[in-house]
User: Fold these one by one.
Assistant:
Number 1:
Amino acid sequence: MKKAIIYYFSGTGNTWWLSKELKKQLNLNNWEVDYFSIECIQTIDILTQIKDVHHIIFGFPVYGSTAPRPMLNFIHNFPKANHSQSISVFATQALASGDTAYFVGKQLIQKGYCLNQTMHFRMMNNLHLPKFRFYPPKNDDRVISLHHKNLPKIKKLALYITQNEKVLHGKYSLGIIIGAFQRSHIDKLIHTAGKRFTVDTSRCINCDQCIKICPTKNIVGSNNTYDFKKNCVFCLRCYSQCPTHAILIGEHSKDVEKFPRYKGPQDGFDVNFLIKK
């Protein structure tokens, strides 16, 4: 039986869901598959995990036509290939992704891996803010509708992997142009947006969930409230999952009717899925 492993980073759950579904499809094709949040593993563990696998898969959300900083760091530290292992890269997006998966995949080619598949999947948006009025996230059957639309594409990706078929989306000129433009701005945008986090102390119940779930340990408790440091990657996990909507990104985000928060890809979603070992 062939083996694959999926490494993913998921801010608010979409990439976790897609990784889970891809695992199911590969299992149906008689592949043995493990999947791991990159927040829950150490580099030393990876050497053992990938030793005998035939195929490695990387998944993440699109942030300005690149991967989130935690995934970029993970790939930077990922071991070099010691034989001709094949890989896939997939990315989840709200709307446009450019050449994201292929752009990130090229970094793994430089480590000796054979990039066989790159693919993008449109999922529910999680970003709708006073300073960035993208379409509002929905926490209803429209999430399920997007899932149903993605399932045939997930099945295709699983089939491409099992048949060792090379399919590289985003490799061509238009995707590269869109991607290069978005990447030229994303770091500055994230740095600026990260400064806008505050806590509404009248709502806050000091549950410390934001500290627990932050992937970069950017949030610290201070005098019965919380401070945000300079390591924010703008994954929106704390903002989306605050049980009392006390975390704000701009004063107007208090209005949860006008600025709803994405609660995850399925009923009963638990943010701890993203951080548990």
Number 2:
Amino acid sequence: MELNGGFYMVEPSSCRFTENLYKYPHIHGDYELIFCLSGQAKAFVEKEQYVLTSGKGIFVFPNQLHFYETVEKGKFGVIVFKPEILPTFKKKLSRRVAASPYFDFSSDKEILSLIENMRTSYDYQSDKYLLKLTGYINFIIYYVYYKMDFLSIPHKDAALFEEIIEYCNKHYKDSVSVTALAKELATNSNRISRVFNTNMKMGIPQYVESLRFSDACHLLEMTDYTVAKISEESGFGSIRSMNRAFESFLGITPKDYKKKMTDRKD
């Protein structure tokens, strides 16, 4: 997985299994499945928290801020994939958003067996495994899709929504306003706001803030930049604005987050 600004780029599909689940807050344009076979973890999608125990998982849609951390070590899996590898469900998924990302497969022996087989045969260096992984993902998504509730997105608004997302992802470090977006995309502000809110369940300012927050978390963990520099690099423009975002998402300051990540590495 490669960072591109505040955004993450992945291969058509990737998979990893771990006993210690952790990923700092991040956003990318792909689908992501996180599931628990044993142990316990906390997963966060936007500002909602979900507890993952054996047989529980979350299905994260593109452009949703998410992160996760272990509560009790166990067996966890993370699959990231592009919709292109799901020809059957590509259109259905592109016009829907999950009412809730949470799903429960604890009582389904077939899916449990499939995931366990996927875990025990895991070999990321094998070309054959990548082909097998695509098959696994198709089967798992078939199961998850019919277990979850989805909200439909009107087809005529899907293209506009993608344009809004693309604009925000490119310009989140600058000043982004609904008025500027409407002018750029040659439509009116009310339609911009309605289409985005319907799809993302949040306003454009909140989404831009989540992109900046994701970028700041990455910089805090991976660099020695000062908080002031990171606030500028990630687009917040001031320490006060970044503090406010961290308090909203995590309930802690950027300095506290940095200390937490440093302690975790030690």
Number 3:
Amino acid sequence: NIGVNYLREHMLPSSRIHYAYQDAGGAAPNVVQSRTVIRYTVRAAELDDMLALAQRVRRVAEGAALMTETTVTCQVVSGMANLLGNPPLEAAMQANLERLGPPPFDESDRAFARDMQATFNPEDIAAALRQVGLPADTDRPLCDAILPYPSPAGPILLGSTDVGDVSWVVPTVQALGATCAIGTTLHSWQMTAQGKSSVAHKGMVHVAKVMAATATDILSDPALLDRAKRDHADRLRRQPYVSPMPPDTHPPIQARP
């Protein structure tokens, strides 16, 4: 794991390596344990960068085994590709966002969001504002405006999703909608607490309308569909899809006795 952490100086700024010790081998501190299990999550903005970084992590593990005269087994349990963009569909969805406007938040929604923000780290709020191209000192509890496309702040790096693999098979577009207070940290109790709020419901329903309107455009405008297909085909010609899952990998399903 020390070797993997040394990789951080030799990888792209947009790449990530996360780890968790699932089995440290034992509880006795005065002996070198005979085994250990560690799980890594390797992430990158582009699929080929992720595969290359994962290979380097694997080689570090093999090198550590050689150095300690032990053996190592590597097992891939999941893998997801990056989302392949589609400008024709993105432009169509942006037009629907601008036509429908922001979600219909009211003062009670904003008051709730301010109460949530009172529990946040101010730096998280400022970072969230900068991520979407707004000044860090903006006094806005909810994102109740339509952001420009493309974002003046550059690409927004989001979490991993298997929608990415779908996007390499068919033209795909996603919408980002406001469903929580600005500055909410992912995987936090604050995110969970807002999950059934009026803010979350209004944002979710509003984005569903945008998706439905975009689907209607695709069905009613053959030229839009043709542009989306041609853009998708051009991207695949430049970079064919490679599954991040090895061909001999099977789902980690345990048979019932």
